[in-house]
């Protein structure tokens, strides 16, 4: 009876084994895992995508990928991204972590053989910084022609810009056309770009953008004590003059930001600020009630009643401090965006300012006097008999210009003595000579 029992036991074992195997999930194939990319994109071009082609900004020089830890999922792996799919294929995704690469370039991937984009192309570029870092994108090439017209983007051949704040994506801008976009600055350490291209397209199109993880808010000048704060100091002993600008200029400045610019001059200094560009979103009186962004000037750390708040567009705007210290504060809300400002600053003593004013006044006076003398000289030349006919004739005879000038200057002198009874001064004769040379050269 042992043999039947052994047969039953063997049969039960085989049945259980088949039952266990039938409950196991099927093996993951490349097709089923294509939409869940892993890994990291770095300078040498590691890709997390679906098409297996070279990633954005990569070259075919055979550079081996840099070893490192697995890429961050950017909080997207478990999220439904069906709205980012084009046709039946998912978007290729390229991830740039600041811990592995600080700057580089991105450009859409196209076919190596045809040089054009494949059908229904969708590519994502995710930038992941840390702490107080922000991502800045500066475009050097951009050509995404729109079939909707020069001022309207369609559903394809577009580049969409998303801010990622608190695990939430916010579409802030859609780019298309042939105009080079202004720089982009993220509101936090993360940024997402989505590129979509239409199918069967043979046009020469695409873009190239340089990315940079930074902590200076896109303000390249001044001393920044704390990387997490938009505060910059400018010292006379470091430079007597220079430039200041709003964050990310000439691109849009970030929302909900407050930036301080402090100027520290010498004991006898004053600070001069001359704006070459000023465009701050808002309307008068540029306060909270008008929901405006604004720029504030002050001779103190606190509010200075001498100055009103400034916003809107100004063609010419200059301010001067009362003493050695000056402060400029720019504040934005969460409403609309502006392109900011750019200004030239310089430290000057009262004596230097007076010398500058005197020099400018003398230049204006000299220009006015010169204009009067030249007008008088020109009018006298017109009344010299035969002048309108004689000059062209003398030039055609190839008589040297210097000789003609001397003769005509003497003629003008004689004419002046006869008509006015006075002899013109040497400076007047010199001006007349210059005018004659100019006439002859013309």
From TrEMBL:
* Residue ranges annotated for the CUB domain, each copy included: 91-214, 230-348
Q: Where is the composition biased (Polar residues)?
A: 30-53
Leader sequence segment: 1-30
Q: Extract the CDD domains matched here.
A: CUB
SUPFAM superfamilies in the cross-refs: Spermadhesin, CUB domain (SSF49854)
Pfam families this protein is in? CUB (PF00431)
List the keywords (alphabetical). Disulfide bond, Signal
Extract the InterPro entries matched here: CUB_dom, Non-NMDA_GluR_Accessory, Sperma_CUB_dom_sf
Origin superkingdom: Eukaryota
Where is the region Disordered?
28-68
GO CC field: plasma membrane
- Fetch the PANTHER family from UniProt: CUBILIN
Q: What is this protein called?
A: CUB domain-containing protein
Q: Which organism is it from?
A: Anopheles albimanus
């Amino acid at each position: 009876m042992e043999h039947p029992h052994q047969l039953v036991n063997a049969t039960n074992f085989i049945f259980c084994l088949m039952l266990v195997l039938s409950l196991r999930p099927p093996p993951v194939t490349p097709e089923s895992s294509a939409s869940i990319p892993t890994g990291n994109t770095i300078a040498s071009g590691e890709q997390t995508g679906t098409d297996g082609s070279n990633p954005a900004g990569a070259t075919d020089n055979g550079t081996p990928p840099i070893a490192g830890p697995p890429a961050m999922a950017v909080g997207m792996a478990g999220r439904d991204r069906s709205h980012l799919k084009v046709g039946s294929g998912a978007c290729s995704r390229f991830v740039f972590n600041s811990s592995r690469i600080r700057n580089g370039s991105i450009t859409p991937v196209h076919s190596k053989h045809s040089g054009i984009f494949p059908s229904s192309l969708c590519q994502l570029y995710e930038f992941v910084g840390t702490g107080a870092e922000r991502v800045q994108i500066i475009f050097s090439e951009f050509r995404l022609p729109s079939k909707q017209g020069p001022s309207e983007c369609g559903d394809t051949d577009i580049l969409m810009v998303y801010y990622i704040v608190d695990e939430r994506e916010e579409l802030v801008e859609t780019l298309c056309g042939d105009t080079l976009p202004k720089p982009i600055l993220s509101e936090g350490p993360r940024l997402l770009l989505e590129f979509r291209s239409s199918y069967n397209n043979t046009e020469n199109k695409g873009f190239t953008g340089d990315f940079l993880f930074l902590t200076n808010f896109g303000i390249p000048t001044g001393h920044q004590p704390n990387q997490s704060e938009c505060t910059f100091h400018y010292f006379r002993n470091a430079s007597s003059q220079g430039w200041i600008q709003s964050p990310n200029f000439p691109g849009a400045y970030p929302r909900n930001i407050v930036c301080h610019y402090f100027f520290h001059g010498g004991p006898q200094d004053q600070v001069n600020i001359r704006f070459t560009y000023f465009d701050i979103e808002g309307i008068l009186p540029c306060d909270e009630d008008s929901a405006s962004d604004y720029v504030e000037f002050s001779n103190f750390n606190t509010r200075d009643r001498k100055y009103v708040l400034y916003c809107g567009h100004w063609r010419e705007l200059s301010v001067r401090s009362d003493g050695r210290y000056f402060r400029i504060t720019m504040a934005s809300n969460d409403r609309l965006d502006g392109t900011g400002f750019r200004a030239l600053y310089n430290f000057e003593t009262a004596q230097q300012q007076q010398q500058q004013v005197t020099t400018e006044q003398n230049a204006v006076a000299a220009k006015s006097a010169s204009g009067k003398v030249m007008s008088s000289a020109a009018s006298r030349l017109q009344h010299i008999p035969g002048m309108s006919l004689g000059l062209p004739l003398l030039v055609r005879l190839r008589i040297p210009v210097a000789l003609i000038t001397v003769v005509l200057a003497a003629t003008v002198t004689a004419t002046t003595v006869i008509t006015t009874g006075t002899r013109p001064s040497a400076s007047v004769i010199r001006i007349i000579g210059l005018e004659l040379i100019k006439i002859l050269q013309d």
